[in-house]
Amino acid sequence: ERARGFAGTQQVGVAEPVSAFGLMAAFDVVGSDRAALASALQALTAETRRLVDGVPAEQRDPRLPPADTGVVTADRRPRVTVSVGASLFDDRFGLADRRPAELVPMPFLANDRLDAARTHGDLLLTVSADAPDACLHALRQVMRVTRADLTVRWVLDGYNRADAVHTPGRTDNRNLLGFKDGTANLDPTDGEVMDRSVWVGADRNGGTEPAWTVGGTYQVVRVIRMFVEQWDRASLAEQERIIGRRKASGAPLDGRREEDDPQFAADPDGAVTPLDAHIRLARPRTADTEHQRLLRRGFSYSRGHDAAGLLDQGLAFVSFSQTLATFLAVTDRLRGEPLEEYVLPEGGGFYFVLPGVTDDGWLGEQLL
Ligand code: HEM
């Protein structure tokens, strides 16, 4: 199956099946000149379009640096998604009246210890590909053409299990706690689901969003460290109660197979699935919460070890949703969950994925 190209009413990289490798890089815009911002976005768009469409770079003059890093060939097409952070709408560019209605700097949420050096940013690049070198190549190419106007703020790279099967309900992708991840996720290939829960549509969320946001979506990034040594000492029964699923199969605690849906209503006191289990709090399966669905698109990361000799591993949680309120409602319910003892959110941010480009326009053109 041929991967979709760059052009589209929505950007590539949100609705496609998960790639084996991922990378995120946040940037700040140098200066406060809107024309410079526009030219940076034009250069970024041109290079992103070339990379995503797999067009080889043209070397015009051998006396100039190579037009391309040469790390991978153009047919190793990455997916690149560009988002904007709340800070782009501060006083610098006069864009305050065009801010997506819910976009604010990510506040300290439950259990956070945010590191400013790994949080926020004016722009966010999300890259995915079938190999880590293809991700790094895309990042370098984009940085080459935007170097005068954008400075890097933070970078994080990681992976999903390479053999992952991405059919909802039957996944072999596991996070670094060793549990299947993505079981009850939304199906991004279902256009109706995406229109209902992920993309901002023509009605602009009931008219609350500025016109340019149509075809975009809210992106939440939470860089969540896992205390893996501590987790590896917790009993299997405890781990399964904390998540609310069987570790080996991914089945809910009241079911046998991964695709069985938990029946929380039949277990009102939490005798089978504790009331504070992660999946029960995240999605109680009640009539008043079922509309609060997120498309989760995270990846695992490892950054060696810290000064105390503890492994620095975790989950770069990424979610896409039509409204930020959905993410906040889920987070609110998760506040104080037993899983908090084993994880620590350290970075990330709130962003808005720019609408796609259908013609020869550029990303952010409608916004500017
Ligand atoms: C489900 C792990 C953070 C929201 C799950 C599942 C696991 C898991 C193992 C069950 C499999 C699945 O359906 O994908 C983790 C870990 C986290 C983490 C290890 C942190 C390191 C978060 C955060 C949120 C979140 C920050 C949102 C605020 C959800 C949702 C589900 C889910 C909505 C699906 C529940 C359902 O529909 O049954 N998570 N998660 N998770 N998680 Fe997390």
From TrEMBL:
The keyword Signal applies. One of its GO terms (cellular component) is cytosol. The keyword Iron applies. The lineage of its organism: Bacteria, Bacillati, Actinomycetota, Actinomycetes, Geodermatophilales. Keywords: Heme, Iron, Metal-binding, Oxidoreductase, Peroxidase, Signal. It comes from the Bacteria. GO terms for molecular function: heme binding; metal ion binding; peroxidase activity. Residues 172-357 form the Dyp-type peroxidase C-terminal domain. Residues 248-269 are annotated as: Disordered. PANTHER family: DEFERROCHELATASE, DEFERROCHELATASE/PEROXIDASE. NCBIfam families: Dyp_perox_fam. It comes from Geodermatophilus tzadiensis. PROSITE patterns: DYP_PEROXIDASE, PROKAR_LIPOPROTEIN, TAT. This is Deferrochelatase/peroxidase EfeB. Its cofactor is heme b. Residues 11-160 form the Dyp-type peroxidase N-terminal domain. Belongs to the DyP-type peroxidase family.
